[in-house]
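User: Teach me something about this protein's shape.
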Amino acid sequence: MTPNTPRGIQSIEVGGQLLRALAHHGRPMALKDLAREAGMAPAKAHPYLVSFGKLGLIAQDAASGRYGLGPLAMELGLISLQQFDPLRLATPLLPALAAQVGHTVAIAVWGNRGPTIVRVEEAPSAVHVNMRHGTVMSMRGTASGLLFAAHLPPARLREVLAQEPHGGRRTLDAAFSAQLATIRSEGLSRVVDGAVPGVSAMAAPVFDLHGDLVLSLAAIGPNATFDVRPAGPVALALKACAAAVSRQLGAAGIVGG
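Assistant: First, the predicted structure itself:
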């Protein structure tokens, strides 16, 4: 312990390794396996598990004898997830993301009039595309718009398309439906010469505990320097960053790009 480290209770920290092991494996475990993962003997682990069981942090299956997380642990987890604000989690990641991809990056959320830019981090290079807070993105001509379109219920999407300003198609035709299916499959939306000629953009989705799209992480830049390949460095960086935020929000089945 360093001089500036606050003093804790060692026995709680030791016992906490058992909880960490259960959380890491995500399934009930036998005493010997759980103790091994926590780096202690079964005889040492058992008293901790008894106490955790009394608190509701651990529950033992009567039939198999395996230990899993208890009702209090689950309740604490749900409360923790409810306290996570997607925008608060994603915003601090923007400077590093912009530096990594070399382009302006932004966060868009669903607003009263559609996908709306709420955070912007300018590109580290001298050449960048200007984006403004509060800009409402078109559903067809922007990466964030396409991303939200891909995850809206069809009936709701038709309503939104019908309300879009003049210009562009306002129907959910077969070609557009196929494009949205590709976006869902790739986990990424891409546009070249969309709303602005000479500009490309990509966007990756951030999902919450319920699997709902809560925000879009987008990168935008000049066609000449913007790599729109779905497996290129910009795409991989966006997807990895979005996946990291999604995991913090409790989204299931999220992996890095």
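Now, about its shape. The two ends are 37 Å apart (CA to CA). The longest helix spans residues 10-25. If you'd like, I can walk through any region in more detail.
User: That's plenty for now, thanks!
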